[in-house]
Task: structure prediction
Amino acid sequence: MLLVPLVPLPLVLRRRLPLAVLWAVMPAALLVRHQSEDIAYAAGVAVIIAAYSAAAYGRRPAALLPSLPAAAATLVVLFDDAKLPHFPNAVIALLVLVPVFAVAYELRMWRRRVDEERERLSALERGRLAALEHAVELERAWIVRELHDVVTHNVSMMTIQAGAARKILDTAPDKAREAMAAVEA
Result:
């Protein structure tokens, strides 16, 4: 009876180490199968949960292939004394585990596709932000060129007017004052 709590205990790590948990739960379930029919059923449920986790969260799909028949064999041994109607226990075990593995595997593939799509959208967003920053830089460069051209023109005009005012200062002081007022403005 002391071993009974050890059967579901590895399920705590089922997402981090899914295949190791499956291979830890199967022998533990076999050790407690003779305690009672309820304990055998609970151990069978622990094996099914571990099998699902291995298929859903496992990182090596090739390592899952030998796990399916091993889990099926474990369930056959666990439910050997149970009287299941019209089907051999091996068929029941496979009928339970094959859909569990299939659903878990498909969920894992779906999560992978979602992650890939999320990464693709993230890359597109980064590209859009880079294009936006580039457009802002181009606009700023255009504004700088325009300001430079305007300032250059105005400084050139001030230089010409100041030079003209200096040349006509003695002969036409009124016109020289107008030219200097234009420079000042």
Notes: The CA atoms of residues 55 and 62 lie 11 Å apart. Residues 4-122 form one domain. The chain has two domains: 4-122, 125-184. Residues 89-168 form the longest helix (80 residues).
